[in-house]
Specification:
about 170 residues; alpha/beta; 6 helices; 7 strands; globular
Length: about 170
Amino acid sequence: MEPSAGSTSSSDPNRSLPGSWHPMPNSGHYVKTDHLAPGVAEYAASHSAPLHPVLAKLCTAGVGGKIEIVFGDAKKSLDDLISRGSCGHFDFIFIDADKESIDDYYERSLQLVRRNGVIAVDNVLWHTRTYDPAVNDPDTEAIRRLNRKLAADDRVEMCMLTMGDGVTLAVKK
């Protein structure tokens, strides 16, 4: 299987950009959403400033043309991809974003990923908080709800990797 598209939502561009862009065929495409304060992207573009340090590195590596960085709200960006007809076109989606909206990202990702495509959800152990019953902040509760949902979701086969801060891999049926 050759990858055709990938996506990620993240607030940390240096950590979340997966290595799947490099083996991607010339026809492949990668979309990265990044939330910036309003006006930052426009200011950088109008002043010829480098817009994104990760993209600059990827351009140097010769794969920058495969990457599209979308600045702004990740939910809106995913909705835009859905409305542009990208449902079922993604092989891999990596979710590492605000935790209170994690279920929204998952549901949108399920629409965008193709059958047998992978959705990776980062931080599913959330610094050990998800299995500490004394912790009940909104972020932790949102992750717990998604973890329970993924375990029971018959639309995917899933596996939780418990190394580090935890990552769940969900393969769409």
